[in-house]
Design goal:
Number of domains: 2
InterPro entries: Aminotrans_3, PyrdxlP-dep_Trfase, PyrdxlP-dep_Trfase_major, PyrdxlP-dep_Trfase_small
Organism: Thermohalobaculum xanthum
Protein name: Aminotransferase class III-fold pyridoxal phosphate-dependent enzyme
CATH architecture of the largest domain: 3-Layer(aba) Sandwich
Keywords: Aminotransferase, Pyridoxal phosphate, Transferase
Structural class: alpha/beta
Strand content: 15-25%
CATH topology of the largest domain: Aspartate Aminotransferase, domain 2
Number of helices: 14
Family: Belongs to the class-III pyridoxal-phosphate-dependent aminotransferase family.
CATH superfamily of the largest domain: Type I PLP-dependent aspartate aminotransferase-like (Major domain)
Order of helices and strands: HEEEHHHEHEHEEHEHEHEEHHHEEHEEEH
Shape: globular
Number of strands: 16
Length: 444
C-alpha cells in the first residue's frame, strides 16, 4: 500500500509504535484522548481506570495542574539552555530534592532523559570510578535472568528477558547472569518470600570464584524486578548481595526506575530493605511522567574519586546528553516532588498497601490465575498461558482496556500498580475489571 497516496488526515500508518504489535493495533486502535486523576478517556468516549499508573510513572494521578503551571512558567522564562559548561537554578534545586529522599551518603545526582539512559550512565559511572581508582581491570558486569534494564545497548546487554535480546545480538561482552528470584516454591506471596534468599544471592560469590572478584566492576539489581512481573526478593537476598559486593570491592547498582519515589511505601526500595547501594538509577515518577526525565545518584566517594582524579579545570566525566537537566523537565520534577511531599503520597501508598494486597489476592482462586506476587502498591498477577506463552496476556490486556481498565502486561503477567491517590474504591474497581476479564477468557 502506498501510504503517501492515502488520505493522511486520520492515518495511523506513519507512526512506528514502540513495544506494540503495529499491524494488530492499527486494525483496532486503543487511543487515549484525555487523562485526569485515576482515569483515562478513550477515543470512543469510554472511561478507563488506570491500573498501572500508566507505566508506573504517575503516582500523583494524571493532569496535575501544579505541574502544568510550573512547566508553562519555566518555558516562558528559560525554555532551553545548554547543559554543558552552563547551568540553571532548576537543575541544582531538583538535585537537592532528590538527594534529600535518598539514604546517606548518596548526595550527587546526574540527570538524563529516561531509565534506559540512566542505566547506560550508571555503566559509564562505574567504569570511570574504577579507572580513577586504579582498578581498570574490573571489566565484568553481573546482572540477572529476567532482568529488564531498559533498551539502550548497555541495558540490553544487562537484560535477562529473551525478547529484549534475541533481535539485537551484538551487545556488550563480559556480562554474566545470576538466577532470578522466582522459584515457584512460594506462590501467592504478599511481601518477601521466606525461602532461598542467601542461596540465590550466592550466585554472585560463585561468579567471583569463577572469574575473580577483582575483575567484576558492578552488579545491577532491580530491588523488585518489575517489568518481568513483580519478582520480590526473598528474605536475606539483597542483604547478602551487599555483603559479597563489600567483600570483593564490587559496586552495587540498584535500578529503581520503577520502585523509586514511593512505589513500595518508602521513598526508595533501599530504605525499605535497609540496604544502601553505591549507585541508584531512577526515572518514571521523577516528573510524575509529565516530561521525560531520569537520573543517576551515587555515593559521595564515587563522585569525589572521579572528579578528584582529573586535572584542575578539566572535564572529569566525558558523558552527558543534549537534554540533561532540561529546564522544563526540572520544573516538572520539582513540582512533582512537592506534590508527593505536600500530600504525603508515599505514606498514603504505604497505608493503602495492605488493602491492595488483600484485594488482588482475592483473585487467587480463579482457575486462570497461576500466581500472585505483591509488595507495596505493586502486584504481578500471572495467568496460565494459552496456546503459547504470552498470547493470553496480550489478548487480556486488550480486552481489559475495552472492559474499562488499563493494566500493563508482560507476557502472561498483569502488573497492577495504581497511583498513590487511589482509594479503596479505586482498588476494588481495578480488581473487579480484572476479574471480569478473567471470567471472559475462562468462558472461551
Amino acid at each position: 500500500m502506498d501510504i503517501r497516496s492515502a488520505d493522511r488526515a486520520n492515518s495511523l500508518e506513519e507512526h512506528w509504535m514502540p513495544f506494540t504489535g503495529n499491524r494488530d493495533f492499527k486494525e483496532n486502535p486503543r487511543l487515549i484522548v484525555k487523562g485526569e486523576g485515576m482515569y483515562y478517556t478513550d477515543h470512543k468516549g469510554g472511561k478507563v481506570i488506570d491500573g498501572s499508573s500508566a507505566l508506573f510513572c504517575s503516582p500523583a494521578g494524571h493532569a496535575r495542574p501544579e505541574i502544568a503551571d510550573a512547566v508553562h512558567a519555566q518555558l516562558l522564562e528559560n525554555s532551553y539552555s545548554a547543559p554543558f559548561q552552563l547551568g540553571h537554578a532548576g537543575q541544582f534545586e531538583l538535585a537537592r530534592k532528590v538527594a534529600d529522599l535518598l539514604p546517606e551518603p548518596m548526595n550527587h545526582v546526574f540527570f538524563v532523559n529516561s531509565g534506559s539512559e540512566a542505566i547506560d550512565t550508571a555503566l559509564k559511572m562505574v567504569m570511570a570510578y574504577h579507572r580513577a581508582n586504579g582498578e581498570g581491570q574490573r571489566l565484568r558486569f553481573v546482572s540477572r535472568e529476567r532482568a529488564y534494564h531498559g533498551v539502550n545497548m548497555g541495558g540490553v546487554s544487562l537484560s535477562g528477558m529473551v525478547k529484549n535480546r534475541e533481535t539485537f545480538p551484538v551487545v556488550m561482552p563480559n556480562v554474566v547472569m545470576m538466577r532470578h528470584t522466582w522459584t515457584g516454591k512460594e506462590l501467592f506471596c504478599d511481601g518477601r518470600p521466606q525461602h532461598d534468599g542467601v542461596e540465590l544471592a550466592n550466585d554472585l560469590e560463585r561468579h567471583c570464584m569463577t572469574y575473580g572478584g577483582a575483575t567484576i566492576a558492578a552488579v545491577f539489581v532491580e530491588p523488585v524486578a518489575g517489568s518481568t512481573g513483580t519478582l520480590v526478593p526473598p528474605v536475606g537476598y539483597i542483604e547478602r548481595i551487599r555483603e559479597i559486593c563489600d567483600q570483593y570491592g564490587i559496586l552495587l547498582v540498584f535500578d529503581e526506575v520503577i520502585t523509586g519515589f514511593g512505589r513500595l511505601g518508602a521513598p526508595f526500595a533501599s530504605q525499605l530493605f535497609g540496604v544502601t547501594p553505591d549507585i541508584c538509577t531512577m526515572a518514571k515518577a521523577l516528573t510524575n511522567g509529565c516530561i521525560p526525565m531520569g537520573a543517576v545518584a551515587c555515593r559521595d566517594e564515587i563522585y569525589e574519586t572521579v572528579t578528584d582524579a582529573a586535572p584542575d579545570n578539566a572535564i572529569e566525566f566525558f558523558h552527558g546528553y543534549t537534554y540533561s537537566g532540561h529546564p522544563a523537565a526540572c520544573a516538572a520534577g520539582i513540582a512533582a516532588l512537592d506534590i508527593y511531599e505536600r500530600e504525603g503520597l508515599f505514606q498514603k501508598a504505604a497505608e493503602l498497601a495492605p488493602y491492595f494486597a488483600k484485594a488482588v489476592m482475592g483473585l487467587r482462586s480463579h482457575k486462570l490465575v497461576r500466581d500472585i506476587r505483591t509488595i507495596g502498591l505493586m502486584s504481578g498477577i500471572e495467568v496460565h498461558p494459552g496456546a503459547a506463552p504470552g498470547i493470553r496476556g496480550q489478548e487480556m490486556q486488550k480486552a481489559m482496556f475495552w472492559n474499562g481498565c488499563h493494566v500493563k502486561f508482560t507476557g502472561d503477567t498483569g502488573i497492577v500498580a495504581p497511583a498513590f491517590i487511589a482509594t479503596e474504591a479505586h482498588v476494588d474497581e481495578i480488581v473487579d475489571r480484572f476479574r471480569y476479564t478473567l471470567d471472559q477468557f475462562a468462558a472461551m
